[in-house]
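so my prof wants the structure for this chain in the tokens format not the other one, which i didnt know existed until like an hour ago. anyway here's the sequence
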Amino acid sequence: MPPTTRTIATAAFITDPKTHETLLLAAGTTVADPTVAEQITHPDVWEPKQVQSVDPQSAPPQHRAKSATNESE
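here's what i got, hopefully its the right format
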């Protein structure tokens, strides 16, 4: 299974797993190293996960909600 790459939404401090120095990851930083990612435990620090695109032909049909207004007036 390939490593997951995610993006930081807000700044976070982590400890570099190799040098043991404290690092500041700025918003917009991409994290691919699982040893770094596991240090970031607050879900709000991460950008929302991207939803996999779906083939429009295999997706279920979309249904429109009925309008709440009376169009005969």
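also thought this was worth mentioning. The chain has a mean pLDDT of 80.
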